[in-house]
Amino acid sequence: MEYSIDLTRRGKKSPGRIIFGVVAIVFAILNITDEVFFNEEMEIMDWFSFSIYTFLGIYWIADGLGKSFEGFFGKAFIQINEDAIAIKPKICKKEQCLEWGIITSVEYRPQNFIFSRIDGSQYSIHIGEFEYEIIKEIKDSIAEIGKSKGIPVALK
Question: Using CA atoms, how far apart are residues 44 and 41, in angstroms rounded to an integer?
């Protein structure tokens, strides 16, 4: 069983957020157009408000389409397959990767997986920040792959 999920994707589309985004961008454009047509001098606050409304509009449209704005700046994922377990919970955190070939046993404790390695050391992967359904999928995937590789897996 292979489990892979991109944590930067939200999945749900929201027409309301798309509408808010379009309204924010239209407001920003109308604000600048108003300044230009009435020959008023563009001030710092005009450019600042234009930038803020445009940024918010783009953010809300991307969020409404089911894409996280964080996805533009990095990756966050969970990948469990026959070769390795790789988890990167947030874009600003370091990826945790552990190959199945060096694992001798797996133990699940609340919010943590403890992997015993061939050299006798233990490696912990914290999964408490994920939703319950994702934790369940992780547990099921690790249990199934561990069983197929003959690695004892203790899920409490």
Answer: 10
Retrieve residue 143's tokens. 């249990």
Q: How many residues are given for the chain? A: 156
If one counts every other C-beta atom within 10 angstroms of the C-beta of residue 59, the result is: 16
pTM over 0.85: no
Q: In 3-state terms, the chain is what percent helix, strand and coil (to 5)?
A: 45, 25, 30
| 88-93-51 Cα angle (round to 5) | 110
Q: Are 117 and 103 in contact, with CB atoms under 8 Å apart?
A: yes
Q: What confidence score (pLDDT) does residue 39 get?
A: 67
Over residues 59-69, the mean pLDDT reads 84
138-143: which pairs have CB atoms within 8 A and are 24 or more residues apart?
Answer: 138/3, 138/78, 138/80, 138/113, 139/108, 140/1, 140/3, 141/1, 141/2, 141/3, 141/80, 142/80, 142/85, 142/106, 142/108, 142/113
* Measured distance CA(125)–CA(140) in Å, rounded: 15
H or E element at residue 46:
helix 44-64
